[in-house]
Amino acid sequence: MSNNKDTFLKSDLLERYLTGQTNTQESIEVESYINTFPEIKEAYNTLQNKLELVAFANAEEAPTHLLGNILESLDEKPVIILNEKQKKSSFNFGIAASIAALVFAGSSVYFYFQNQDLVNENQVIVDELYDLRSDIDQNNSKLNALAEQFSQLNNPETEKYILNGNLRAKNLKTVAYINSKEKTSMIDVVSLPILPENQEYQIWAELQDKQVNLGILSIRDRRLQQIPYTKDALGLSITIEEKGVKPNNNRDTPVAEIELKIED
Fold first, then answer.
1. HEC per residue, the chain
2. Which CATH class is domain 159-259?
3. For a 10 Å CB count at each end of the chain, is N or C smaller?
4. What's residue 236's pLDDT?
């Protein structure tokens, strides 16, 4: 009988009995165990108290006008005295309704968090699409710039000038592309000998009475790049200068230079 008692406690008969879900035979069996074993009765009382607390916690306060309506109705109709079985059935129905409410609330919370996860995933996708669109725009800008450069290179009016280094910079080689009609200038840094940390290469445009600094050439800029177009330039030259010193016309001897074609 003890083993049967343990088996009974591990089953869900008590819960189903309290919620009115047992048949007649099962109800008789439960009531027999409750009357026979004190620990089962204690478990029954404990479970009943817990379910009552749940039902009370989920109960809603009735509107104030409802009480008056009920009292008036009671004055007009005979009072029906409920027997113990009817009371228990009503109580079991209330517990079942409370459990159903809890299940519904739990489901609502679950679906709420599922929806939040979906919203977060959608936001991640939107951010990735935004980054992708930004990358596409940047790539399109680069492609447009390259297309413009190739268009300038293929222009019949564009003149090509190769600047090779002298003995002071044997491996120096740059190629300049100048279009006087379109007023564009580009330079392709092919190779530059490495300089000490305190020195740098600078490119100049030679005019009739002065020299104009067109910027710094870096070993990191081994690519086709725009340089300022200088009208009436007679030639181009590259010098080695001290870093941080403002460019001036009193330059050192160029390490590479070339004359430009003079337009008629």
1. CHHHHHHHHHCCHHHHHHCCCCCHHHHHHHHHHHHHCHHHHHHHHHHHHHHHHHHHHCCCCCCHHHHHHHHHHHHHCCCCCCCHHHHHHHHHHHHHHHHHHHHHHHHHHHHHHHHHHHHHHHHHHHHHHHHHHHHHHHHHHHHHHHHHHHHHHHCCCCEEEEEECCHHHCCCEEEEEEECCCCEEEEEEEECCCCCCCEEEEEEEECCCCEEEEEEECCCCCCEEECCCCCCCCEEEEEEEECCCCCCCCCCCCCEEEECCCCC
2. mainly beta
3. C
4. 92
Question: Which tops the pLDDT comparison, 136 or 251?
Answer: 136
Q: For residue 239, what are its two tokens?
A: 């010098």
